[in-house]
Amino acid sequence: MTPVMALLKRDLTLAFHQRAELLQPVIFFLLVITLFPLAVGPNASTLQIIGPGVIWVAAILSSLLGLERLFRDDYQDGSLEHLMLSTTPLPLIALAKVTTHWLTSIVPLIVLSPLLAIFLHLSEAMYWALLATLLLGTPLLSLVGAIAVALTVGLNRGGVLLALLLVPIFIPLLIFATSAVDSAAMELPYTAQLAFIAAMLLFALALAPFAIAYALKVSQN
Amino acid sequence: MSVLSADNLSVVKNDRLLFDKVNFTLAAHGLLYVKGPNGAGKTSLLRAITGLLETEDGGVYFLNQKVALQRTLFHQQLVYFGHKLGLNLRLSALENLVFWCEQQNIQVSQDDIYGILGELSLVGLEDVPVGHLSAGQQRRVALARLWLKTAASLWVLDEPFTALDSNGIALLTKKVMDFLHAGGAVIMTSHQELQIEYPRQELVLEYRI
φ, ψ for residue B60 (rounded to 5)? Predict the structure, then answer.
């Protein structure tokens, strides 16, 4: 097995050992979204207007919940030092870690999204647009989020700082994503918004692993 | 030929100069013993040598080439044993070591790992999560890396004898001696008086304010 595959396998095994901790973001996501129809009333047209925004805001906030754990254990027990002294390039290790985060913290949210779309009375066209934005946009949350986590891993209790650093960066993504779903609701094409999100994703995919690697090196000092 | 040398090495940590202008040359078969009081920078020196800690000034040379220019070769030849053991407490000794070998590209069978863990008196504890082991046993699991990576030519050991019983100390001492005789180079720190009967270089770090 190649070192990167071995790292993925180990992290997924560890995630499975910590199922309870892993469920937290999913439950948070579900709770926030089920509360909205109760709070604003079951009126379909109101829910359709706020629905995409609610799902995206909940997705961003719940991904922040799982993010802090990304490098914490490996930093504290010294596994990170040994990973840095292995022969695998650090950006590849960072990319494997980001993939684990996306698979364990975000894919469950995407799997749940059809159910939530029903809660919020989204039309079928709106749901497909939402799914496309989630699939393209959420890896960006993991990639960019990991840079901030790597920077704050040396500080204890970086949680609030993490949210303050990241939420402003995610605003463009939020705007494009909800605008795509709005266009779908009006039966307009939304490929432009998707193209913007895809461009941001590719840009982050090319640069974030190196930024994460550098931040991890700095946090070892 | 020198396996490892440092040239005017300086490290600053939290705005405090830990040490500056540290020079040493370590050849094959050489043992360098780093001494100094708490806070003198022994651990930082070892971390600076491995490249984990950024140096303020000076360079570290491996086989007369700057380490920064040949990271992959250096990592292939190095075993580092630090303050943090690098063991995940939720995984078993076996899982931890198999993972480490995969990361280091070491081809080793599970039976070999069982054998080494047996040699380190960890029989029956191979599949127990490392978090359930005692401090000394955890350190024995981490030390198994010295047995696993046979291709190494340099060991950097930070307080390897801490928390080991007399049997463990004897076992490790013998392993270090064998490695030195076979042509390896070792850098280590220790607060106990070193029991190794082997010619050694000493490097003394002073505590600075």
Answer: -115, 135
Helix runs in A102-190, H state only: 107-119, 124-152, 159-185
Pick among B81, B85, B102, B159 to test the A interface (most A CBs inside 10 A): B102
B152-186 tens-digit pLDDT = 999 999 999 988 899 999 999 999 999 999 999 99
Q: Range of B195's domain?
A: 2-89+151-204
Nearest CA in chain B to A80: B86
**pTM more than 0.80:** yes
For residue B67, give the DSSP letter: G
pLDDT per position as a tens digit, A95-128: 999 999 999 999 999 999 999 888 888 999 999 9
Using DSSP's 3-state secondary structure scheme, residue B185 falls into: strand
* Selected residue of A17, A79, A217 to mutate for chain B interface (largest B Cβ count, 10 A): A79
Residue B131 lies in a domain: no
Interface contact B103-A6, CB threshold 8 A: yes
**In a domain? residue B42:** yes
- Tell me, what CATH number does B9's domain have? 3.40.50.300
Q: What value of ipTM does the predicted structure carry? A: 0.91
Decide if B208 contacts B16 (C-beta within 8 A): yes
Number of domains forming the structure of chain B: 1
∠ CA A139-A141-A142, nearest 5°, is: 65
Q: Residue B90 and residue A220: Cβ atoms within 8 Å?
A: no
Give pLDDT tens digits for B16-37.
888 888 899 999 999 999 988 8
